Amino acid sequence: MERNNLTCVSEFYLMTFSDDPDLHPVLFGLILSIYLVTVLRNLLNILAVISASHLHTPMYFFLSNLSLAGIYFTSSIVPKLIVDLLTHIRVISYGGCLTQMSLFVLFGCMDDMLLTVMAYDCFVAICHPLHYDVIMSPHLCV
């Protein structure tokens, strides 16, 4: 007779930075301030590239997309962490965990792909400067 495990997992309990409740407001302030600085810095990068016409080159196009991916990447994890610090609820549903991890991996891979394309852009600019406009055309970059 074979035995099977028939337990069903519907939620996960999250570990905390500290069990000391007096430390939670400090952690909340620190994490929120770092998150806001990160989002603001990335938004300023995007705004600078959009507003300055001389920055409409492939490298800056990829840089603004990297900033946008950075906003998405940090926004896939940090808001749940901040809410957990405020509410003291340390539970995430299975679907929520799956969604959060999928978005985290997706935006992490997007960062890696953009960095790879930016490295290729630099390679073409250095090794093939006369063919740069043909190889890195705006149509290809999009």
Q: Keyphrases for this structure?
A:
single chain; 142 residues; two-stranded antiparallel sheet; 2 strands; 4% strand; elongated
Q: What's the topology here?
A:
Elements: E1 11-13, H1 24-51, H2 58-75, H3 78-87, E2 91-93, H4 94-127, H5 132-135, H6 138-141
Antiparallel strand pairs: 1-2
Overview of this protein structure:
This protein has 142 residues and is mainly alpha-helical. It has a domain at 58-124. Helix content is 69%, strand content 4%. A two-stranded antiparallel ribbon has the order 1-2. GO terms for molecular function: G protein-coupled receptor activity; olfactory receptor activity. It is found in: Membrane.
Give the % helix: 55-70%
Helix/strand order: EHHHEHHH
Strand content: under 5%
Overall outline:
elongated
Question: In whole angstroms, how far apart are the ends?
Answer: 59 Å
- Please give the radius of gyration in angstroms: 21 Å
Biggest sheet descriptor: 2 strands, antiparallel
What number is the mean pLDDT? 89
* Biggest sheet strand line-up: 1-2
Number of strands: 2
Short characterization:
By secondary structure, the chain is mainly alpha-helical. It has 6 helices and 2 strands.
